[in-house]
Amino acid sequence: MGRREVRVVRVPKGVTAVLLLLTSAGMLAIFYLLSQHAYVRPTGSSADLLRRAMTAEEAGTLTPTRLIASLWPVAANLGLFVPWGFLAFVALDRPQRPRSMTYAITILGGILFASAIQVWDMSMPARVTTASDAVANGVGTFCGAILGHLRKQVRVRFDY
Question: What per-residue confidence (pLDDT) applies to 52?
Answer without folding.
Answer: 62
